[in-house]
Amino acid sequence: MKVLPVKRISRDTESSSALERQDIELREAIALGGHELVHMVEDATVSGAINLDERPSLGEWLTEPRVHEWDALMVTTQDRITRDDMHWWQFVGWVLKNDKSVIVLDDPSLDLTTEDGRMIAGIKATQAAKYRKTVQEKKLKQTAYYREVNLWSGGVWPFGYRTEAFQFNGSKRLRLVKDPYTAGLVREAYERITDLGSSLSRICADWNARGVLTATDYQKSENAKANKEEANTKPRGVRWQPTILKTVLISPTLMGYATHKGNIVRKDGLPVQRAEPILTRAEFDRLQEALAKLKGSGRRPFHEPTALAGLVFCICGLPLYSNSSSRKLANGTRREYHYYLCAARFSDQMCEHRVSWDRQFLMDSLESYFLETVGDLEIMNRAFIPGRDRTSEVTELQGAVDNLTQAIASAESATAVTALTQSLERHARNLETLKAMPVVPSSWQETGTGITYREKWESQPDWDAKGELLRKGGFTLYCAGTPAAPVLHFHMPENIERRLELRTIDYRPEIELRDGIPYDRESGAPVASLLKSNGHRRR
């Protein structure tokens, strides 16, 4: 008989042993029975509530053309087929209609061709369904309770956090804490996007090159380091993509808030603080604004960025994108041309500065400006010092006070009024405390490295490394005019400008960026609008 053995588990925690045990039992049964093994079907971490034809592995064996390749479906226990009684009866009807057999190792007498056999199997299916629902209800209640007392109920760690064991009411429980490694990556992404104008694509390409693991794979890797035998420890090798990174960066969990189905969990109108924040509320809001601007920038679909990605921009404010072409020469050979175009070329936006810039010209210009302007400056390590600003918390708490005041006015029960009044008084006291706290702005602490930018530049092996040095430093080049008469503006972060001003009293950069658009410092007008009338000089 041609047998299709089927393995299934519902949870990651079973994967280290349950699948292996099923595999051994099924193979031994096939060998003892003298059957032919068609294919070992495995559906890992697939709930018994999912219908059979919707399962990733089993589904294809229930339809054309593979449905004709086997005679009997074999499982170790009946509930490995399904834990849903309605799905079971649908499956029984399908089995009889398609002249298939079912072999259950722990119930060798199972016979779906007889009424008594179907009745007994149906009772077992109903019991399995009731058990699944009981477990599900218990899990939901446990999750709700854990959420109420800020315990971790399981699942994938939010990126930037990990679990920590501690004693809670005499039992060992888990809670979320900041993970030093991934929390650092979140701050890196925040700074590159908000301060340096980097794109999600560039960060993803960089993280993939550095071997940074996505949230699920990182957790599996940490499980392996901790030798957690009952946990899944095999990373899938998922690579970072802009959509994955954006999902991480728009999550309120970065502020340490508890969430449920993507929404912030609130208590008495205020967000529940589940863990120490990675980003303050002000930083989180700033990041969302920066991400919104990236979304509307007219950029092309994701592709692997080049060495100059995120460094060269059109004077209209849009990035320059790489392109290439070839031309056949008179001697029969072909010459390759590598150049950069304004991103407006790839969107519906209009830009009058649509010229092609030779790649080597841009590289030479960047190198020249960079070394002439900041080459002799010492590279400084910058450490972010979080400030203390309770403005956003005061606003949220004031909103909660207003909501409670309205609720008290409309409450009909004396008990409800008492409970609401107590919450209102507690919020009012907290509000006064927050208002009295001093505002301490965030700052950066700089320490010298003893290495100049020129020394660092000359030590880089290629332009990929040099481009990354420029990106991390926040240096960019804005291009206008034509290749024959270029008007180029080299831009740098404010902290570098201040250091240059201290060294050179007459130093004053020509442009400043406002929402990614270069403005002339002297007139305050967009540089692009002044080009025809003023013709800015090339520094």
TrEMBL record:
Residue stretches making up the Recombinase domain: 158-300
Gene3D superfamilies reported in the protein's UniProt record: Putative Large Serine Recombinase, Chain B, Domain 2 (3.90.1750.20), Resolvase, N-terminal catalytic domain (3.40.50.1390)
Residue stretches in coiled coil: 394-437
Source organism superkingdom: Bacteria
Name of this chain's protein: DNA invertase Pin-like site-specific DNA recombinase
InterPro entries assigned: DNA_bind_recomb_sf, DNA_bind_recombinase_dom, Resolv_N, Resolvase-like_N_sf, SSR_resolvase
PROSITE patterns assigned: RECOMBINASE_DNA_BIND
Keywords from the named record: Coiled coil, DNA recombination, DNA-binding
A GO term, aspect molecular function: DNA strand exchange activity
